[in-house]
Amino acid sequence: MSSTKFILGLFDDPDVLLHGIDELKKNSVPIYDVYTPMPIHGIEDKLGVKPSRLGYAAFMFGILGGTTIFSIVYYTLVHDWPMNIGGKPAFAVPDFIPATFEWTVLFTAFGMTITFFFATHLFPGRAPRVMDLRATDDRFVIAIDAKGNVPHEDITNILRDAGAVEIKHNDRKYVSYE
Amino acid sequence: MASHHESIIREPLVTGENITYAKVTDDILKPVENMPNKAWWIGFTVASLGALLWVFAVSWTFWYGIGSWGLNKTVGWAWDITGFVWWVGIGHAGTLISAILLLFRQNWRNSINRSAEAMTIFAVICAASYIVCHMGRPWMAVYSLPLPNQYGSLWVNFNSPLIWDVFAISTYFSVSLLFWYTGLLPDLATIRDRATGIRRRIYSIASFGWTGSLKTWQRFETVCLILAGVSTPLVLSVHTIVSMDFATSLEPGWHTTIFPPYFVAGAIFSGFAMVQTLLLVVRKVLGLENYITMFHIEAMNKIILVTGSIVGVAYLTEFFIAYYSGGEYEQYTFLNRFIGPYWWAGCMMYGCNVLMTQLMWFKKIRTNIHVSWVLSIVVNIGMWFERFVIIVTSLHRDFIPSSWAMFYPTWIDVSIFIGSIGLFFTMFLLFIRVLPSIAMAEVKLLLKSSSEQAKKKLMAEGHLEPQQVEFYKESLTKFDSVELADYKK
């Protein structure tokens, strides 16, 4: 029994990486994840990652923010303490637009970004789960779960033929833990 | 596909030979991973002395009150609000670059957005400090929030533009900070994975455990797009609301409907001038000529020209409306800008902002680094005087001639202003020392499509219209970072 946990194919070019993904798919090798130093458009279609639903979250948070501040303004200036300003109506909607707008934006931005951090498990101090340290620099990494995907030699050959500059058999899942 | 061929007639966004992904990282992280050079230390020493002056002058103001400023009962707003509007305006360029240019798919923004956004944040900090200072009793700032209190509760007046401003500036600052920091995560992870020891620990905490996995990137891009989408109306709203601080009053010179678009254009104008001032120095000192190229400089100069001309049209409109309105107070206020005791401030305003920027029509000027830098300083000065003219010159001669007065700044006024510039540069210099001044991940995106070497490859492959190739070669002559000898036949 080999002690390899993950097989990593390291590419130095995003187009070659996409070719590598195609080759693995052709050979029915499941891909665990792909780590890249920049966003590569087109991988998500190949790997069947659905479009992000963060837009819906953003919209809902926006509605929440706008409603919240409008309610505060309504309560304070119309309900709780209406002021007579030159005999004008207390419920002066045009004057309430700036604050409503600002909080709509504020809640949208923070709500959506916090949802993003939550969904992708990003928070200050989280131990980085890095499989290869150059994946944030200049290597485009395909990770394949070694368990069940045998023989490893075949996967190595597929990756090499697809143009990987380096192939690693990692005994540890993450290299970044001290 | 990750890369697609871009038309040869587009100028390269990354110049230089053998620019690999690794070289991008190395070049951009050089100032972060090495001890700073002499130029940085000199700059930092001067800037932090300025910041100390700011701390001293602001403390003095808090201790003795704003009576230590040169304000009088006629001129109740002067250098404080001038400084506030000036700094907020400067901040606007960062959001324009990071949000609006992203929505318009202007790829040249990729190499300047990081430092421009940092500049935004530091400028808004300087602006907000003015607002807190001019309250005199800064702890009263809490009453600008709609919080229950023992007076009733007596709530804040949401009909007032000053309260809108509190909401606008605080939202603007926090959303800009969020946008900037989210964009920084991948680059912080890059530093983390190259660092060792304590530095690694710090950047590890700061990078939130970023790994660059597929789903993270995909969602990251969605987040950036939506943040850009909401920041665009936000940035327009901020200076609109700042202008309403004036425009909703009945003061001649302030009471004009043109203020919102005029202020927004002026804000972008002054902001790009400040970006130009900073980046022309940064690219030289940090050796980033291949990433911030002559194309970027010229593009920013074009924006300065366009927005400067919009501002010019707004100035003319103001004068025309003052004449056409038939209001004698309005007419006097505008005449007073030229024939009153502050004629020199008016000349600085119109001269620096309108006349000097018209020089940018000439390509020789737009692509000359030294002249561009001097002009960017001229614009910064001109935009400061614009706010000074609008605020002080409009106020100092109001409806009753017996209360006419002049404004004379005290040494505290001057120290706070000079100090705020020191504070700004201190923060900016610390930023380029500890964080990547160019968004590495975003520049890497350009490498296979828009770089000089990609275009060279395209030319070597042939199949291009010879006219287009000639056009491209011609456009390279303005670059200072391109070896023109390579393109000789």
Strand and helix layout:
The complex is a heterodimer of chains A (178) and B (489).
Chain A: E1 6-11, H1 14-26, E2 33-35, H2 43-46, H3 54-80, H4 93-119, E3 140-145, H5 152-162, E4 166-170
Antiparallel strand pairs in A: 1-3, 1-4, 2-3
Chain B: H1 21-33, H2 38-64, H3 79-103, H4 113-134, H5 161-194, H6 197-206, H7 214-247, H8 259-285, H9 294-325, H10 328-339, H11 343-355, H12 363-366, H13 369-396, H14 411-434, H15 440-446, H16 452-461, H17 466-476
State the gist of this model.
With 178 residues, chain A is an alpha+beta fold. Chain A is built from 5 helices and 4 strands; from the N terminus they run βαβαααβαβ.
Question: In words, what does this structure look like?
Answer:
The complex is a heterodimer of chains A (178) and B (489). By secondary structure, chain A is an alpha+beta fold. Chain A folds into 2 domains: 6-37 and 138-170, Alpha-Beta Plaits (2-Layer Sandwich); 54-119, no CATH class. Chain A contains 5 helices and 4 strands. In chain A, helix 1 packs across helix 5 (152-162) and helix 3 packs antiparallel against helix 4. Chain A starts with 5 loop residues before the first strand and ends in an 8-residue tail after the last strand. The model of chain B has no long low-confidence stretch (mean pLDDT 90). Chain B is globular and about 80 Å long. Chain B has 2 domains: 1-16 and 449-489, no CATH class; 21-144 and 156-446, Formate dehydrogenase/DMSO reductase fold, CATH 1.20.1630.10. Chain B is mainly α and 489 residues long. At the A-B interface, helix 1, strand 2, helix 3 and helix 4 of A face helix 1, helix 5, helix 6, helix 7 and helix 15 of B.
